[in-house]
Automatic annotation (TrEMBL):
Protein name: Peptide ABC transporter ATP-binding protein
Ranges that cross the membrane: none
Keywords from the named record: ATP-binding, Nucleotide-binding, Transport
Top-level taxon of origin: Bacteria
InterPro entries: AAA+_ATPase, ABC_transp_ATP-bind, ABC_transporter-like_ATP-bd, ABC_transporter-like_CS, Oligopep_ABC_C, P-loop_NTPase
GO biological process: peptide transport; transmembrane transport
Pfam family membership, one: oligo_HPY
Family per similarity comment: Belongs to the ABC transporter superfamily.
CDD domains per the UniProt record, alphabetical: ABC_NikE_OppD_transporters
Signal sequence range: none
GO molecular function: ATP binding; ATP hydrolysis activity
Organism per entry: Paenibacillus oryzae
Domain ABC transporter: 16-268
Length: 335
């Protein structure tokens, strides 16, 4: 994959290039590691995508599809068992601990559960200053001024500097999570379900804030969510995940105009459209999602797919790309 690719007719620099990412979690018996590994949970399998500078890439799928594990594996929080993540020409998985620590200020994570990610025993000022202390940025007075400035950026007040996490609402804590990630002025932010636990009105505030900050600070976002309406609003391109694999990828509007993979079609049909007098017909999938302990052979979706044939059971479909940037992994799809 090249460092410069075309997106929407424009040349775009590839900031992050994820290649054949794999993550397996070992499963041990009742005696732990004493008798070795019994099996593996295949959380992420052969995931590849590019993230262009200044864009928002949405990663969508049901719970357990491997979205969050993908984001955490890129950062090394859940070390990958295979593949590569190339950031500005450097392989993140081959960096030493010291090199990775230096790079962490450029790549920040917004956690899904903001309450548990904020130390309840520290005031907000201490929490937000900590990244600056770790990276030895500024003196004590400069760090305090940086915290006051970032609180203003995310729509909070200077007096919030002295409060504890439990004194904030869910929306305010999400703003604090954004503030902690933004205070190091990163180039790339990985947002893991940043609005999933918020009311709809607060969701819109946080999403509008993210879009505003992205424009002003020239941020690149990897936005992980299960909410179709949210990802459509904020993303430039979208990747659809199912059981640890990307099954479809396309620019946002192109994907919504015509989803090609049977799973994407079923996923989109589950979203109610209240602008129509009659509710659209739903595509109901049969059966349950297979266990990642023993994923199906061939296409992972074939156990629930209405188009499944013999080749689907035996051969993994290639994620093929058309001229308009639409990629689909399906044996029965023709560009």
């Amino acid at each position: 994959m090249s460092a410069i690719n075309k997106l929407n007719g424009e040349n775009k620099k590839v900031l992050l290039d994820v290649r054949h990412l794999e993550k397996k979690f070992p499963v041990y018996g009742p005696f732990g590691k004493l008798f070795g590994t019994r099996a593996f949970v295949h959380a992420v399998t052969d995931v590849s995508f590019e993230l262009y500078e200044g864009e928002t890439y949405g990663l969508v799928g049901e719970s357990g599809s491997g979205k969050s594990t993908t984001g955490r594996s890129i950062l090394g929080l859940a070390p990958a068992t295979g593949g590569e993540a190339i950031y500005e020409g450097r392989s993140l998985f081959r960096l030493s601990g010291a090199e990775m620590n230096k790079l962490r200020k450029d790549i920040q994570l917004v956690f899904q559960d903001t309450y548990s990610s904020l130390n309840p025993r520290k005031r907000i000022g201490q929490i937000l200053e900590e990244p600056l202390v770790i990276h030895k940025m500024g003196n004590r007075e400069e760090r305090r001024e940086s915290v006051f400035a970032i609180l203003k950026v995310v729509g909070l007040q200077p007096e919030h500097y002295f409060r504890y996490p439990h004194e904030f609402s869910g929306g305010q804590r999400q703003r604090l999570g954004l503030a902690r990630a933004l205070i190091l002025n990163p180039k790339l932010m990985i947002c893991d379900e940043p609005v999933s636990a918020l009311d709809v009105s607060i969701q819109s505030q946080i999403l509008n804030l993210l879009r505003q900050l992205q424009k002003e600070l020239k941020l690149t976002l990897l936005f992980i969510t299960h909410d179709i309406s949210v990802v459509r609003y904020i993303s430039d391109r979208i990747g659809i995940m199912y059981l640890g694999r990307i099954v479809e990828e396309a620019p946002t509007e192109l994907l919504f105009q015509g989803p090609q993979h049977p799973y994407t079609q079923a996923l989109f049909s589950a979203v109610p459209d209240f602008t129509r007098r009659k509710l659209k017909e739903r595509t109901v999938l049969q059966g349950e999602i297979p266990s990642p302990l023993s994923p199906p052979s061939g296409c992972v979706f074939h156990t629930r797919c209405p188009l499944a044939s013999e080749i689907c059971k035996k051969q993994v479909p290639e994620l093929k790309e058309s001229l308009d940037g639409h990629r689909v992994a399906c044996h029965h799809h023709e560009f």
